[in-house]
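Weekly structure sync, notes
Attendees: PL, DS, HV (note-taker this week)

Item 1: ABC transporter permease
DS walked through the input record. Source organism listed as Saccharopolyspora cebuensis. Sequence as pasted into the shared doc:
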Amino acid sequence: MNKLSRGLIGLLGFLVVWEAFSRSGFVPQKYFPPPSTVLLRLGELLTQADFLLELVATVLAWAIALGISIAIAVPAGLLLGSVRQVRTASRVIIEFLRPVPSVALIPLALVAVGSGPETKIALAVYAAVWPILFNTIYALDEIDPVMVETARSFGFSRVRTMFTVALPHSAPFVLTGIRLSAAVALILVVSTEYLAGGGVGLGNFALNASTGAGRMDLVLAGTVVAGLIGYLINEILEQVHKRGLRWSAVDREAA
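Item 1 (cont.): predicted structure, written out as tokens:
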């Protein structure tokens, strides 16, 4: 039995348990509709232009946030990982900022940035930077010193050593960080849309569905869409990891 078959069996089992629990009467179906109802609503939503615009808005904000995170975190990680003096000088501020929950910064972001898409993008960037940054730093910590010394013995400059030795060694770790950050960025985008309101996106759709007519079937349908997006993103990045970094010694299955 391959990985796909096991995954489908697990998904089917989950849906059966969900359906049985929802129809058991422990919780009114109005508040916890069965998957048969949710999937029916999902099919209807995917044919509606307004919902597709919400979906596109969320995915676009996620993609922008992840791209900015990569552009910030990879160079910063290479700098902090290769120049110990800079890493030591910045350690206190990094360890102070890293544990701060991004959701707790929503009020500050609304005041500083406004209620537009910039808010969810900024918060998603703040949350998504850390996994990439620390994976990059860790990769440089784990590099074999013999590789660096060999490159230098051939007259390679620090910059050339970075691009020919450090970056190829770091690539699997960086991509693992990107996979983690992709999920974090999606969570922050949808959460900010839901908590901050305004604008468009899956979170805003769920907010309107829950506070208007209390349509939990629509809320769960939107949630399922967000979960499917996260799953597809992770699968794509995992395939990139497997096919693009076949030479990597990193255990991709464990990642």
